[in-house]
Structure formats: C-alpha cells, structure tokens
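<backbone_tokenisation>
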Amino acid sequence: MTNQTQHASFAAGCFWQVQSIFAKIPGILKTEVGYTGGTTPNPSYEQVCTGQTGHAETIHIIFDPQTISYQTLLQTFWTCHDPTQKNKQGPNIGTQYRSAIFTHSEEQNKLARESLTALQNSGRLQKPIATEIQPKTQFWRAEDYHQHYEEKHTARLFRAREAP
C-alpha cells in the first residue's frame, strides 16, 4: 500500500458479515479478517472460540482517505451491528464477538471517541454503548477459509436463509 492509504480495525461480532459489508464500500482497497486484542500469539480460530485468548474477531481495512473518510467507516461500523451488546452479536456469544474499535493513530482515537459520544447522545439507542475503543494491538490474520467467507458461500447461505 502507498503513503496515501490508511488502516482501520473494527470488531463487530462475527467477522464474516462485517467483512462482507465493508468490502463492498468504494475506497476500501483491502479487507482481511483476523484476531486482535488478545494475549495468545498467532491464535487459531479454535483457540479464539474458547474465549481464553482475549482476542476479538476483527476486520482489518486498508482504505484510500481521498475516497472515503475514517468518519464514514465509523458510521458504517456503528450501523452494521448492535454496539450496546457486551460480548454478543445476534446468536454469537463470547468475548470474541465484542464490539471494539482498534485505533491506528491518535486522530483515529479522537474521532472514534467523538463518534461514540455523538451516537450515545443522539437518543437513537435504548441502552448505553458497550463498544471498547483502544489502540490497535497485533493483528493475527485468520485462516484462509475465513477470508471473504460470505462471498465464497453466497449460494449456500442464501438457500439457508430461504428455507421454511
């Protein structure tokens, strides 16, 4: 990536759906899913699922700030999941499914905190926001079969959703 690109990292439940949403946005140059925020080096999916590693399922984004702003990424983050849920999104329960923003700079930290405060004060949410905001830690790329999972399995997922 060039000097004109920036990085962003978000945890918003199962990383499959989150990647599917962000990958379609113009200005996003690359997305990868993996694990951030824990203590186990290079954890496997199975290890993360135990809840013992401390990692969150995370999407790492490389974007062109000339095309899309970090603030727009934050807006997408807030709307693609329920930020009031602690360690849960939909049917997925566990610390690996927590809501978190892993900031890559002081500016991102400032913007993330401002956006959280604005959303909390907007009156649109019935409960307090549970999202963590913290500096990024080591991102461990998830196994290949997790990368762009929904795109690879669209037909099967669509059939499952259409079942009576």
